[in-house]
Amino acid sequence: MKLKINPQVYDDLVDIKASIAEDSPEQAVKVVAKILSDMERLVDFPESGNKLSNKIRFEVKYRYIITYSYASVYYVEDDSVIVTTVLHLARDFSAIKFED
């Protein structure tokens, strides 16, 4: 498996880091590093995430993993794991724009 990360994810991580850094720059670095580490683990365990369909109540190909208070949303296609976004768990997952 290959890990592919949508450019939007990097924007998401920059926003997450900036938000956390207001209170703790050290914690901000730790959280972003852990999110990236968990994404890398998907290469070996692509089906380990929860099915997003169970959370939003309509069928989509996406899954998600949780790191601290953030969800990394991804799907598996051929030999790749494609991460599309990272969002706070308080956000409305059904507002995600899905490409199917």
Q: What summary fits the major beta sheet?
A: 5 strands, mixed
Structural class: alpha+beta
Uncertain runs: none
SS element count, helices: 3
Please indicate the percent range of residues in DSSP E strands (runs of 2 or more). Answer: 25-35%
Q: What's the shape?
A: globular
Q: Helical content, roughly?
A: 25-40%
Taking all residues together, what is the mean pLDDT?
Answer: 92
N-to-C CA distance: 21 Å
CA radius of gyration is 13 Å
Q: How many strands in all?
A: 5
Please identify, by name, the CATH architecture: 2-Layer Sandwich
Query: What is the H/E string?
Result: EHHEHEEE
CATH fold type: YaeB-like fold
CATH class: Alpha Beta
**Spatial sequence of strands, sheet with the most strands:** 1-5-4-3-2
CATH superfamily: RelE-like
* Domains, number: 1
Short description:
The chain has 100 residues and is α+β, with helices and mostly antiparallel strands. The chain has helices spanning 7-21, 25-41, 52-56; strands at 2-5, 50-51, 63-67, 70-77, 80-88.
Per-chain topology:
Blueprint (H helix, E strand, L loop, with lengths): L1 E4 L1 H15 L3 H17 L8 E2 H5 L6 E5 L2 E8 L2 E9 L12
Helix pairs in contact: 1-2
Please name the defining characteristics of this protein.
YaeB-like fold, 5-stranded mixed sheet, globular
Task: Give a verbal description of the structure.
α1 runs antiparallel to α2. This protein has a five-stranded mixed sheet with strand order 1-5-4-3-2. Helix content is 37%, strand content 28%. It contains three helices and five strands. It is globular, with a radius of gyration of 13 Å.
